[in-house]
Design a protein that fits this description.
β10 and β11 form a beta hairpin. By secondary structure, the chain is of the alpha+beta class. It has two domains: 150 residues, Jelly Rolls; 79 residues, Winged helix-like DNA-binding domain superfamily/Winged helix DNA-binding domain (Arc Repressor Mutant, subunit A, Orthogonal Bundle), CATH 1.10.10.10. The protein is built from eight helices and eleven strands. It has a four-stranded antiparallel beta sheet.
Amino acid sequence: MPLDHFRNLAIANTLRSCQLFGGITTSDLERIAAFVISKQLEKGEYLFQEGAKAEGFYVMQSGAINVHRVNMAGKEQTICVFRAGESFAEASLASASGYPAAARAIESSTVLLVPKTDFVELLRKHPELALRMLGSMSQHLRVLVGLLDDLTLKDVETRLSHWLLKHCPAPVRSQPVSFELDRTKRVLAAEMGTASETLSRTFAKLREQKIVRVKGKTITILKPLELEKLLRRHLGEPA
């Protein structure tokens, strides 16, 4: 079989793993894969700058991309870090303006560009695909709203507690839960909208309460139920 066939299959598999394409048929995914452009970036390399002409939206294949803006004081504020299977910059489909933020690789990364012109033309030719995409995008929007809720929680301890509890199976039980941190603490701090030093102090506070243990990259939630009660208190909910 030609190499293009295997390339398109690999791209279609990546698209299938993305929430945005959750309701799309295999044949439609293959149509999209045919015009998708794969891009490799080294750590520290920019995918696009704020204000740059929007070529389309992106799907992560591997690595990590930090989407951020720089405020008036010159400080970089992370909006979100995207990893394999996640998509970003979808607003480019409905806007003639440039990208509203910058995107930089914080690891060696491979991203898939879904060109705006080709994608919109495909939607025009296949209206049923547009309807399926609307359904998928509504689900995707719910996920993004969840991310926004995480960022607007009132303090770092609340945000960290919420993030830690996401790693506990539901319903939360008393047994300890361990997991490996898949990013640096500096990146985690940026995702939570705080400084590395503040995040370290917050982890130390939870360690002093014997709720959490950190050893290298391994984080153990020693008392998940206590952590849940702590989060409820911070949110003003009954424990």
